[in-house]
Design goal:
Layout: H1 5-11, H2 13-22, H3 24-27, E1 38-42, H4 45-59, E2 65-69, E3 81-85, H5 92-99, E4 105-109, H6 115-119, E5 122-125, H7 138-150, H8 155-165, E6 178-183, H9 187-202, E7 206-210, E8 226-231, H10 238-245, E9 248-251, H11 256-273
Parallel strand pairs: 1-2, 1-3, 3-4, 4-5, 6-7, 6-8, 8-9
Helix pairs in contact: 2-7, 2-8, 4-7, 4-9, 8-11, 9-11
Length: 291
């Protein structure tokens, strides 16, 4: 199948990560400050990015950070700031949440003149990370790059890892009939995102779990012809346990965010191998707008 928009968007990520990090001096005051109690909200992919950032922010000692799906934000809790992530700025749950929120909020979006931007207290716009494909890749990872930069991560080194991820061969993985993504700590949110990408783009059976919890039941579906794929380091002994099932254990020595790039490419490769258009997945649109 011919190259798609999402191929180009995946390949552009090292550069969009660098551009996102370069925004930091201009937008740092709009982002959560050390010591603030923060909630991060999003829907779908954006929610999974929120999960990863929440763990990273707490690990960095910047303060309590919770992540919620946009529809599940607990309005009875007190926060100093709400961070909303929305590529289009039109997602119904995010627009409605920001419109009724008394807490200071900041929207991270690709579309600065969107309804959610009008409802938020502040906006951080990244139009260079916007996408034509319905399947979201570079906007989400560029958002995480910006947020990680504020926490002190070396985004240049991360971008170089992403460049390496673009060259990892995948053909021998595309014959699998099932994949389970696993990870630890902040990578758990990225495993949910990896599994979502394969479901969206390729209508493929994929699951995701915290790597330690994978042993507590989900390992029962592992068998020959299936993959168990870790983003970031795996618990000691897990690869050996997977090997006894006959499933293939997949691991790349990359930061979990860079490893997600490999999983994105896997999703697109699966879609093409099945004769599907990964830019326009079945039953999906760029943004969920409810009547």
């Amino acid at each position: 199948m011919h190259s798609t928009f999402v191929d180009t968007e995946i390949a552009s990520q090292p550069e969009t990560w660098r551009r996102a990090a370069a925004l930091l001096p201009d937008v740092a005051s709009r982002l959560p400050q050390a010591g603030e109690r923060v909630a991060v909200v999003g829907c779908g992919t954006s929610w999974f990015i929120a999960m990863s950032y929440a763990v990273l922010r707490e690990q960095a000692g910047h303060g309590v950070t919770d992540a919620f799906a946009g529809s599940e934000f607990p309005r009875t809790r007190d926060y100093d700031r709400v961070v909303a992530i929305s590529r289009s700025g039109t997602t119904t749950e995010i627009v409605e949440l920001l419109s009724g929120l008394a807490t200071p909020s900041v929207l991270i979006t690709a579309v600065p003149d969107s309804p959610a931007a009008s409802a938020a207290s502040d906006t951080v716009a990244m139009p260079f990370a916007d996408e034509r494909s319905v399947v979201q890749t570079r906007f989400a990872t560029s958002t995480l790059s910006l947020l990680r930069a504020q926490l002190g991560a070396d985004i240049e080194a991360l971008a170089r890892e992403a460049e390496a991820a673009l060259d990892i061969p995948l053909d021998d993985l595309l014959t699998a009939d099932q994949c389970t993504f696993v990870g630890l700590g902040w990578a758990v949110g990225l495993t949910y995102e990896a599994a979502l990408k394969t479901r969206e783009a390729a209508q493929f059976w994929s699951e995701s779990y915290p790597a330690m919890d994978y042993r507590h039941g989900p390992i029962a579906i592992a068998q020959p012809g299936r993959l168990v794929w870790t983003l970031g380091p795996a618990p000691v002994g897990l690869a050996d346990e997977v090997a006894t099932t006959g499933a293939r254990f997949v691991e790349h020595e990359l930061d979990a965010q860079a490893a997600l790039v490999v999983a994105q490419r896997f999703a697109v490769g699966l879609a093409k191998s099945r004769g599907l258009d990964p830019d326009n997945p079945r039953s999906l649109t760029r943004s969920v707008i409810l009547a």
